[in-house]
Amino acid sequence: MIAETIAMQFQVPGQLVALESIGSGNVNDTYRVVLRTTFSEEQYILQRINQSVFKNPALVMSNMKAVTDHAHKRILEEADQADRIWQLPRVIPAMNGDDFVVDEKGGYWRALSMIASTNSYERISIPEHAAEAGRVLGHFQRIIADFPIGELEDTLPGFHITPEYLRKYDATLAQRSAQERLELSAEARRLAQFVEDRRDFVSILESALERGELTQRPIHGDPKITNVMIDKVTGKGTSIVDLDTVKPGLVHYDFGDAVRSGCNPAGEEATDLKEVKLDLDLFQALVQGYLSEAKGFLTENDKKYLYDSVRLIAFELGLRFFADYLAGNVYFKTSYEAQNLNRARVQFSLCESIETRESQMRRILETHC
């Protein structure tokens, strides 16, 4: 097995005793590696980077190494004042000193330190968990806020640029096969009208960036709840993982995605749309946790657009699911024909729920800002 050979090519002492496939992610192949010496046991995470998603893995690793080195330095500087042990994965060097190993087929592999004694969760069900998720994201953004974005590569051009997704949707919609799918489904036609009714909203963040109201900073890029690690003993958040998507961007995309994934208890695969909603108790807790860390580096304009980011990210993901359904399910993995259509229904229903709660959400944000 190629992973067993690769596992011994990183700077971790010991002999290989176990290699276990772990995780349910749809991007990278992930393994837990266990090595032992006469006196100790070492464990780390081994991953093969998905090159169909990340076209230049070396740049992904360069971003990850630069940001985590910067973040680890900040964590150490603040350790005496912290109320917990903050962690982030460490990039473990290969035997030749590189940040990755390339196999004979051209596959890129990396080794990362494990986050000790933690769990991640598919959903948030209690406000205390939401508060910790918000605090973890706010802490991560704060400790990397001063990292110069000029030293980061944009490894996913167009990622979280909603007007670009709308253009791709329009191109898909113009295809005959997409029109045939619309003709066969009243629900698909309803979702198409949902998109039409919100076209003017799609550019709200990018337009603010163009006007100079918002500025780019380093962002995580994918801060969904499953990437937040919670300490098994204390119940406190200690880390955020899956740093492939670290890149320059608007912190609003991180905040919006954290709320989208964390404050809808029904989850992304719900089939009863009546269960899909933005839970205001979870939202208030997440906002409180997030702003306890992020308030100091956010500008007044940053704060002004926080609500809009939540609405936009729910819409954006729904648009991506819907476009993929119309294209014939070519991007997102599916287990049944209409799964992307249902996923789009869920996100658009969540977007509607967010819209109906705008006044309450803005009051919550103003209270904590």
From TrEMBL:
Keyword Transferase: yes
Key word Aminoacyl-tRNA synthetase present: no
InterPro entries in the cross-refs: Aminoglycoside_PTrfase, Kinase-like_dom_sf, Pseudomonas-type_ThrB
Ranges of residues in domain Aminoglycoside phosphotransferase: 20-270
Short name of any one Pfam family annotated for the protein: APH
Gene3D superfamilies: 3.90.1200.10
UniProt xrefs under SUPFAM superfamilies: Protein kinase-like (PK-like)
GO MF term (any one): transferase activity
Parts of the chain that traverse the membrane: none
Keywords annotated in UniProt: Transferase
PANTHER family hit by this protein: AMINOGLYCOSIDE PHOSPHOTRANSFERASE DOMAIN-CONTAINING PROTEIN-RELATED (PTHR21064), SLR1880 PROTEIN (PTHR21064:SF5)
Protein name: Aminoglycoside phosphotransferase
